[in-house]
# Entry
Amino acid sequence: MSAIESVLVENRVFPPPAAFTAQANVKPADFEAMKAKAERDHAGFWADLARENLIWSKPFTKSLDDSNAPFFKWFSDGELNASYNCLDRHLNTPVADKTAIIFEADGGDVTKVTYRDLYKRVCRFANGLKSLGYKKGDRAIIYLPMSIEAVVAMQACARIGMTHSVVFGGFSAKSLQERIVDVGATLVIAADEQMRGGKAIPLKPAVDEAYGMGGCDAVRHTIVYKRTGGNVAYGAKDIDWAKVEAGQADDCPAEMVNAEHPLFVLYTSGSTGKPKGVQHSTGGYLLHAMLTMKWTFDIKPNDVFWCTADVGWVTGHTYVTYGPLAVGATEIIFEGVPTFPNAGRFWDMIQKHKCTVFYTAPTAIRSLIKAADTTPDVAPGKYDLSSLRLLGSVGEPINPEAWMWYYKHIGSERCPIVDTFWQTETGGHMITPLPGVTPLVPGSCTQALPGIAAAIVDETANDVPNGSGGILVIKKPWPSMIRTIWGDPERFKKSYFPDELKGYYLAGDGAVRDAVHGNFRITGRIDDVLNVSGHRLGTMEIESALVANPLVAEAAVVGRPDETTGEAVSAFVVLKGARPADKESAAKIAKELRDWVGKEIGPIAKPKDIRFGDNLPKTRSGKIMRRLLRAIAKGEEITQDVSTLENPAILEQLKQSL
Ligand code: WTA
# Structure
């Protein structure tokens, strides 16, 4: 049986087109040589790349410092500046007058800035920040929509050595407040409103609401970028973005920082109720951003690169704000949504801006597959997509059918697809095809990058043979890895370097390698983390939000497969009062709870289904049996043994209650 499966898998292998390989930054021989070098001398491999790619104001003498594992350091006696490495380095080169960013607004207006213009804008804003008293080591929260301003704000922080923490615009005031407090921000940079799908959505009011929740007294200013000029309230702390820039010099010498200086903290979900502040370095992080632009995206001077991810997520940090600029690429930044004014928006933009390398998420692909059927006049076939030469996917496993559609209809069976596996914590790609090297297999992220010691092990850290599933680990430290959880080093150790795994980095995903090629396939999270539309959500976070509602006594949240969003949030709720007597009252309370979760965390976390019960299925020792809830959420027959259940009758009730 497994032999047949392997043959089937092999039938869908797409070797790199010869023409692609001929021009690729990394060719098969380079790949082998890099792997061999990393194998021979791991620290030296990375050190050479760090010297070749980054500009150091003070060269480092030591590559990896593992004296305080798992708190690894890289290049730690070196100094550099991330913004210098993205902007200043291009000033006396032909890149200076090249377009850095093509920004397309929700409504379709296009703004372009050159590298020189962007440099000046970043400098003026950075000087403005300095004149307000901000300096190296301070932390800024950034709550901005996709815009040139978001890149300017992040780069300006980096320029003066401030650590930024971007909060996705879809997060609520409560989430914002928690992050302001946890990171100890003294500055918030926000927009008045954001435009999405033709609608203005307020952001600034959420900032004020966050302040109102307390704990934010350290914040001295809210800098407000007036995106819409909408009618939002202004108070004493607020300063107009334009005022911050006004009269400032076009030059702002970059503040050189230690390679280990925290460039940013980005909050992500884990298996407890509290999001983790993933802390990244400057040197190692930026190195990997640059390398993967060259290796994975095969970036060339004439490319027009488009990563559709929001800067509120790590993908938007590495492949919008830092990677493309560090390598001097032209990139597209898009404010809106893929379905406005119609589902042809992405294809129209690819055609219009002659995009060559396109990087998006499976959830977007799946929703556009559906749309291509229902609105055929804006299907991809109606557009000229011939500028494309490479496609990418990120954020969740891409199902083979979606892969095939992407390959055929967007890439015309011409463009390789790089299915990039990585995480907020890894800083950049870890396991991914290289487009001129790796034979592609739909649904597989294929092979680890050179220098990335990815492996699959069992619970006691022993390697499992190809063909059997296990826990994905990275056996050796790498430069762009998470440094710690902001303010919680103990949690960092426990979450990522648990004792049982003998010093390996625990990714939190299950994976399997195929028997023939050893290609990796990610089978999904092994912890209580969901992936909804490529967004990471902790089930515990949603549960804590639900039980914080005065109506709720108990709640359990699980994921279930969803055709479009990958996974959907499914909640089981026990109310303090009686279970809703009829459908109408259940629907009413369900809506109230959904809105509540939207307020507590953000609309992305709203449960798709809510079931009410008198209780939850528990073992005699009181443990909620989530696998039963998962079966109910999926609509499956319960075949598992329920004999250890305290209250088996509850299953029937929960099944009926949707
Ligand atoms: C999942 C996003 C399969 C995985 C960059 C990981 C993927 C989590 C892939 C990290 C992929 C990301 N194939 N699964 N190509 N890319 N994942 O931190 O479960 O938002 O652990 O980083 O997304 O999500 P995060």
About this structure: The first strand starts at residue 64 and ends at 65.
